[in-house]
Specification:
about 10% strand, 7 helices, about 40% helix, disordered C terminus, alpha+beta, about 150 residues, four-stranded mixed β-sheet
Amino acid sequence: METLTLLYDARCNLCLRTVAILQGLEVQVDLQMIPLQEAKQSVLPEGYTQEELLSELHVIDNTGTVYRGAEAVVRILRTVRGMGWLMVLHRLPGMSKVADWGYRLIARYRYQLFGRTDDCQADGEACSLHNKQTFLKPTELPSAKTEDDHAKP
């Protein structure tokens, strides 16, 4: 079975919600979701700074190919049962550029739009960006897989 490794920012509420949603979907690969803040050096792709890795989602496949940003989202969606129709949209002329632009815009302002776990935990109260608790701490993610769960003996 193919393995994809998703590296995400565990301080980003949007990233945490995305991981929680992915855990509830039926994916056709072994999808490892690892917070960058807890990732071992051996998992990180070579040639990327910590700042670059934190700026957008990164997905690494079995061959070591690294997908970034909107391309990473598309790579994961290709493995989700029932999401194949989105690939048709993504292949339309100009749509990959629109997806890249939209992804970069949201990624750049994700903390302002969705908050950070640090902000939401200030003074032990729910963050003002949320009416209800809409963020999860990495330790609260249901059955989150880490790199240690997939270590080879």
